[in-house]
Amino acid sequence: MASNRETVPSFGRTFRQILLAVLAAVCVALFALWRIDSPRVERLRMALIDTVAPSIEWSSTPFAGLVRMAEDFQSYSRVYEQNEELRRELQRLRGWREAAVQLEQENARLRALNNVHLSPRLAFVTGEVVADSGGPFLQSALLNIGERDGVEDGSAAVDGLGLVGRVSGVGRDTARVIFLTDANSRVPVIVKPSGRRAIISGDNTDAPRLDFLESVDQISPGDRVVTSGDGGIFPPDLLVGQVVTLQNGTVRVRLAADYRRLEFLRVLRFAPPPRIEGPGGLILPGGPIALPELPDLSQDVTQ
Amino acid sequence: MSSRESTRTWAGMVALPLVSALGLLISLAPVGLSATDMPMPDLVYLPIAVWLIRRPEAAPLLLVFAIGLAADLLRGGPLGIGVLGLIGAGELLRRMSEGLVRGPFMMEWLVAGGLFIGLLAFQCVALWLTFSPRPAFGLLWQHAAGTVLLYPLVAFALRPLTGPRGRASAERSLA
Question: Could you say which residues from 169 to 198 on chain A have a Cβ atom under 8 Å away from some Cβ of chain B?
Fold first, then answer.
């Protein structure tokens, strides 16, 4: 009897050890799949998120609301100072608005003179931020818009001020946006007015690095950083932020987007201009040059 | 096992995923989206740790695995190593649970907190070995500190579900 009693726990322990080994192997396999960027992992993830998204909204909205209320309460305590500050800022902005209107008119006149071919217009869809990653391993947000709303993987996401990140993972009703601050984020940019190209690389700080910058000679603090549009994923000229240089010579970007107040994000639906891949039938390889047919002018001359 | 004990175990097995799901949903709330804002404490690890120490029979390995996998999938970060670390730390807690419920609460807190820091360190090493981007040390430290400091509060809040430590200790003695 005693041996029987000992056999049962021993069997249970062996079973548990085998189960533990199997589960560990499953975990390692999942990690390997994630590391090689298998699209199946992302599909599985977004399918699960689509399923639980209503619960996320239901539970996280009141909690986020409470935290925001607490933050707002702190700001109410210095409402007078803020009011004064806002009045001054409003006065400054009125001046800027006037300048912007004049510039817009001038720009329109110049474009008309120049017969400029405008880039395709951007369409966008706005979504609400319903969740974040909830941990230190990823800087991201979950939006309540997805494939059904025309969101595509890789699309740019902006707030009212500047670029926030790119869509990485789209479900039917949800999409995940990886922030520019995340360590996985890389976006090609141009520093203006010098026109230097670089890559803005997230490193889990508020001010991402500018990498692959040819030279820092013509770059000074306060220079505007905009997307270059290289690669055709992001539209060009989206505001990213301003250059700040540190004492050790590292060039960083103070982001224009206000990450502390992200409630709604606009996901841009950008169709890059068509690329001209060949001669278009005008020049045949190794053959005679195909000239367009000329109109017959002889009749006009005789008449 | 008496029918009353069996009912308690089943009730615990139903309550654990519900509490963990609530913790996960709260931690996913879009608060502090800035890169330098303090990350939320791990509200999935905490209830699982409390359960494994006080009611290990109501936290079977497969259930812990399922909860950890769901958390890994929903959080969007590295997949697989979070749940691997969780089941590893969970099995250690399960083995030590008998001694922990009989010892002082400080020891329970220390072990649960230490294992969580070990879990984070394991994830960072795995990311480093596979040349994956790693989170900032400052964020990890804040995440770990927040989670460890919250343990007593979560353990106290879950007392109605897990029972007081004295009862867990007495049950082990009877078994």
Answer: 169, 176, 179, 181-184
* Integer CA distances (angstroms), A261 to A72, A125, B101, in order: 11, 19, 44
Q: Smallest CA–CA separation between A16 and chain B, in Å?
A: 8
Q: What is the CA radius of gyration of chain B?
A: 16
**Residue of chain B whose Cα is closest to the Cα of A208:** B35
| Single-letter code of the amino acid located at A162 | G
**Which architecture characterizes domain B3-24+39-174 according to CATH?**
Orthogonal Bundle (1.10)
Q: Give the number of residues written for chain A.
A: 303
Q: What is the pLDDT of residue B51?
A: 93
Q: Which two tokens stand for residue A82?
A: 């803020």
Which of 73-112 (B) contact A at CB < 8 A?
73-84, 87-88, 91
| The pLDDT of residue A2 | 46
Residue A250 lies in a domain: yes
Q: Please compute, for residue A139, the number of CA atoms within 13 A of its CA located in the half-sphere on the CB side.
A: 33
Range of the domain at A233: 186-256
Domains in chain A, number: 1
Burial class (CB in 10 A: 0-12, 13-18, 19+), A141: buried
* ipTM, two decimals: 0.88
| Rounded Cα distance, B81 and A14, in Å | 24
Instruction: Check residue A129 and give its pLDDT.
Output: 87
Omega before A193 cis (within 30°)? yes
Asked if A267 and A235 touch (Cβ cutoff 8 Å), the reply is: no
CB neighbours of B6 closer than 8 A, spacing ≥ 6?
A: none
Least Cα separation, residue B65 to chain A (angstroms): 8
Q: How confident is the model at residue A133 (pLDDT cuts 50, 70, 90)?
A: confident
